[in-house]
Amino acid sequence: MHGLDIAPRFHHLAIQTDDVDSTIRWYQEFLGATVEWSLASFSPLTLERLPGIEKLAELKKGDVRFHVFDRAGHSKDTPDPLGYQYQHVGITVDRAEDLVALREQWLKARQAIDIHWTRDDPPSDIVTDPDGMQSLYVLDPNGLELEFVYFPGAGS
């Protein structure tokens, strides 16, 4: 047997942005996420790893948490699409109809929140793979891609 006898579980996705408050409003409007807590003071390790961090807030919807934070001197550069990065994050939903509802809610939220968007891409169509898995791809205001996935017969 290789590796450790440890069962990791996903806890949160950290989102570095140049506008914490607008990003929070976006996730509240789009997903109905709630702010669980926020910080404006940080440990020496956090300050070393993330120089210039000024604010951090945890948003939560269901079992998914988003840690939204800014750093002084943010470059405002978007990730290099050809460079090493987490290209997207996959989040499961329980029903195929949830994908339709999320797509509609994304469009409504985009109209409702007047904030700066780094990319102007609309949500994807809902696509179905040969094995029946269905996916919807959307961007947040920072240009970060989220994939919402429905696995028929598997639940979340």
TrEMBL record:
<dbReference type="InterPro" id="IPR004360">
    <property type="entry name" value="Glyas_Fos-R_dOase_dom"/>
</dbReference>
<dbReference type="Pfam" id="PF00903">
    <property type="entry name" value="Glyoxalase"/>
</dbReference>
<feature type="domain" description="VOC">
    <location>
        <begin position="9"/>
        <end position="151"/>
    </location>
</feature>
<protein>
    <submittedName>
        <fullName>VOC family protein</fullName>
    </submittedName>
</protein>
<dbReference type="InterPro" id="IPR037523">
    <property type="entry name" value="VOC_core"/>
</dbReference>
<dbReference type="InterPro" id="IPR029068">
    <property type="entry name" value="Glyas_Bleomycin-R_OHBP_Dase"/>
</dbReference>
